[in-house]
Automatic annotation (TrEMBL):
Residue ranges annotated for the Bacteriophage phiJL001 Gp84 C-terminal domain, each copy included: 180-263
Name of the protein described by the UniProt record: Bacteriophage phiJL001 Gp84 C-terminal domain-containing protein
Biological source species: Paracoccus denitrificans (strain Pd 1222)
Cited NCBIfam families: phg_TIGR02218
Length: 272
């Protein structure tokens, strides 16, 4: 088999789309997946360790209209996609072995190509497990722990892009909200080339005439154009006061606001 070895990749996105790639010069097929040789996807050496160490590798490839497009990449549709890598005998695909399974991590675009980090099955062991005891809320606004309904009137608004300058956008048609109402919230693009992209709101200022200036923490991968519609979702800074006064949702607050601060442990004790 050593003289007929090729590599084959199967990548399953979170939306269910499955694509197959191979570094062989002809198409391969097994497990109901067609592995194409013309995708431009290849892999660097897979580093595998014993025990609980994290396997890692990189996938590099070219952007194309037929397989991995710039729009899908920038929209995050490839984030956390499931990845399997085989060594396969191209003369007999039944003779193969699975050498890597994991998911895509950070994806970096460079010109007409991309580079994606691969993370093995043991990678989740690096994450914090269990509940964190902290004065601020540990839930995500609107999730199953928070239980707040973001479709309630007043907690979202739609507008039209008037001006776009990287991580700063000026919108029209957004009125009736206090300045800062959408800080720590989300901006979602509803139309245009950037449709489906979203970003976290860093700053939110109300301007005269129903206009609004929104600053994002990071510019979107595909920039919205003037005339594109966007939706703003109210932001939460995770404080107990915000949960109680802004969202009227203190019953579901997932923090510990009365937890003593860290300096309490080293504060001098007063004898009484």
């Amino acid at each position: 088999m050593s003289g007929t070895i090729a590599r084959a990749w199967a990548v399953r996105r979170c939306d269910g789309l499955v694509l197959g790639f191979t570094d062989h010069d002809r198409a391969l097929s097994f497990e109901g997946i067609a592995f194409r040789p013309d995708s431009g996807l290849s892999a660097r050496a897979v580093v595998q360790g014993l025990g609980l160490s994290v396997d890692n590798s990189e996938a590099v490839g070219a952007l194309s209209d037929a397989a991995i497009t710039e729009r899908d990449l920038m929209a995050g549709r490839w984030d956390a996609a499931d990845v399997r890598l085989w060594e396969v005998d191209w003369s007999d695909a039944a003779n193969r072995r699975l050498i890597f399974r994991g998911h895509l991590g950070e994806v970096v675009r460079s010109g007409a190509a991309f580079r994606a980090e691969l993370r093995g099955l043991s990678e989740p062991l690096n994450r914090a497990q269990g509940r964190v005891y902290h004065p601020r809320c540990a839930a995500v606004l609107g999730d199953g722990l928070c239980r707040f309904d973001l479709t309630r009137a007043g907690y979202s608004a739609e507008g039209v892009v008037v001006l776009e300058e990287g991580d700063r956008l000026e919108l029209s048609g957004v009125a009736g909200h206090d300045a800062g109402w959408f800080e720590h919230g989300q901006l979602v693009v509803l139309s245009g080339a950037a449709e489906g992209l979203s970003g976290m709101v860093k700053a939110d200022a109300a301007l005269p005439g129903g206009r609004r200036e929104v600053g994002l923490w990071t510019a979107l991968g595909i920039r919205p154009a003037p005339g594109d519609r966007v939706r703003l979702l109210a932001g939460c800074d995770k404080r107990a006061e915000t949960c109680r006064m802004k969202f009227l949702n203190y019953l579901n607050f997932r923090g510990f606001p009365h937890l003593p601060p860290e300096d309490w442990l080293i504060a001098p004790k007063v004898n009484r």
